[in-house]
Q: What sequence folds into this?
C-alpha cells in the first residue's frame, strides 16, 4: 500500500487553505510519489478556491477520503474533521471553534502516522492564541506533536537546499539563553540531529558544525566562558560517541562555508543565530522540520499571515518545499 502524506489545513482564517489551493492550481501537487490527503474542512477549501476564481465541486469519498474537491479540473482529497460555517468566517479572526479544528487536524494526522496508516505529515500554519482559546495549553505545533508522540525532547530544524540549521533553544528571550544553555541540552541537540539526518535523510555520517554563543567563539574567555564550559565538552562527548561534530565555530564566518556544502547541518545556540542566515537564503522555500519524533513531520516556515489572508497573495513555495521534503524523508524509512 502506498501510504499517503497528510497535509493539515491549519488556521481556517489564515493563509493555509489558500496556499493549498494555490499549490494545487499551479500543478505543484502532481507527480508526487505518495498520495496527498488534506486533514481539514472542505467548505473552507472551497471558499479558498473562490479567491482565485476557480470553479469547484465537492463529492463524497470513502475511508480516509471523506470528500473530494475538484477545483478547476484538479482533484484534492480531503478528510473532513470540521464543517465550519465558511461563509461566516472572517480572515484573521479565528473563533474558538477554529482553534479546536486546528488542533484536531494535527492530532488526527499524528495518530494516523503513529498507526502506520500515513507515511508522514505536513502542517500549514496555526494560530497559538486560537488553540489556547479552544482549551489547549500547548504553545504551538511542536509541543502538541511531542505530547501526542510521548517525546520529551525534540529539535527544530529549518532547512533548504543550501542550508540546514538546528536550534538548541528556540522561542526564548535573548537574555535567557545563557541561563538555559547546558552541556546536556547541547549534546542532546547534537545527538538528535545526527540520528535524524541518518534515519530520515540517508546520510551515513552527517557533518555537524556546532556554533559558539559569543563573538569569535568567546575569544579565549574574553567575551564569555560558555564555549569552554558548555559547548566544547558537549562536542567532545558527541565525538566520543562517533558523531562527526566540530566547533565551537564562530557564527560570523561559519555560515559562509556551510552554505557552500561544507557541513550537513549547523547546530545553533539560539533562534536568530540560525534563522537569520536561513531566511536570507531560503525566505520563500524554507521548511520547518521537527527532529526527534518517531514520525516524519515537516511544516511551512511562516505563520498565518493575517495581513494578506484572503487576498490570494501568499506564496505557496514553502508549502510545496515542505511537501517535497516530507516525500523525500519518507523514502528513507
A:
Amino acid at each position: 500500500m502506498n501510504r499517503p502524506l497528510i497535509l493539515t489545513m491549519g488556521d481556517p482564517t489564515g493563509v493555509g487553505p489558500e496556499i493549498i489551493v494555490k499549490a494545487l492550481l499551479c500543478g505543484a501537487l502532481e507527480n508526487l510519489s505518495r498520495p496527498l490527503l488534506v486533514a481539514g474542512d472542505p467548505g473552507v477549501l472551497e471558499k479558498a478556491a473562490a479567491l482565485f476564481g476557480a470553479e469547484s465541486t465537492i463529492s463524497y469519498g470513502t475511508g480516509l477520503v471523506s470528500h473530494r474537491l475538484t477545483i478547476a479540473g484538479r482533484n484534492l482529497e480531503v478528510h473532513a474533521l470540521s464543517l465550519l460555517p465558511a461563509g461566516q468566517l472572517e480572515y484573521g479572526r479565528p473563533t474558538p471553534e477554529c482553534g479546536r479544528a486546528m488542533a484536531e487536524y494535527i492530532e488526527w494526522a499524528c495518530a494516523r502516522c503513529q498507526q502506520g496508516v500515513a507515511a508522514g505529515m505536513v502542517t500549514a500554519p496555526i494560530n497559538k492564541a486560537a488553540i489556547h482559546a479552544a482549551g489547549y495549553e500547548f504553545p504551538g505545533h511542536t509541543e502538541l506533536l511531542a505530547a501526542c508522540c510521548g517525546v520529551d525532547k525534540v529539535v527544530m530544524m529549518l532547512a533548504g537546499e543550501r542550508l540546514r540549521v538546528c536550534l538548541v533553544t528556540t522561542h526564548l528571550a535573548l537574555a535567557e539563553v545563557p541561563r538555559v544553555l547546558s552541556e546536556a541540552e547541547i549534546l542532546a541537540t547534537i545527538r538528535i540531529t545526527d540520528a535524524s539526518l541518518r534515519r530520515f535523510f540517508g546520510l551515513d555520517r552527517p557533518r555537524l558544525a556546532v556554533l559558539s554563543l559569543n563573538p569569535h567563539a568567546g575569544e579565549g574567555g574574553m567575551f564569555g566562558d560558555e564555549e569552554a564550559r558548555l559547548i566544547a565538552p558537549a562536542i567532545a562527548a558527541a565525538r566520543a560517541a562517533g558523531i562527526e561534530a566540530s566547533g565551537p565555530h564562530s557564527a560570523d564566518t561559519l555560515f559562509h562555508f556551510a552554505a557552500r556544502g561544507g557541513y550537513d547541518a549547523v547546530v545553533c545556540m539560539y533562534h536568530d543565530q540560525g534563522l537569520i542566515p536561513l531566511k536570507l537564503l531560503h525566505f520563500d522555500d524554507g521548511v520547518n522540520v521537527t527532529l526527534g519524533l518517531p514520525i516524519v513531520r515537516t511544516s511551512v516556515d511562516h505563520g498565518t499571515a493575517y495581513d494578506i489572508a484572503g487576498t490570494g497573495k501568499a506564496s505557496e513555495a514553502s508549502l510545496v518545499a515542505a511537501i517535497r521534503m516530507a516525500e523525500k524523508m519518507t523514502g528513507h524509512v
Notes: The longest helix spans residues 96-114. The chain has two domains: 5-151+293-330, 155-279. The CA atoms of residues 13 and 289 lie 24 Å apart. The chain has a mean pLDDT of 96.
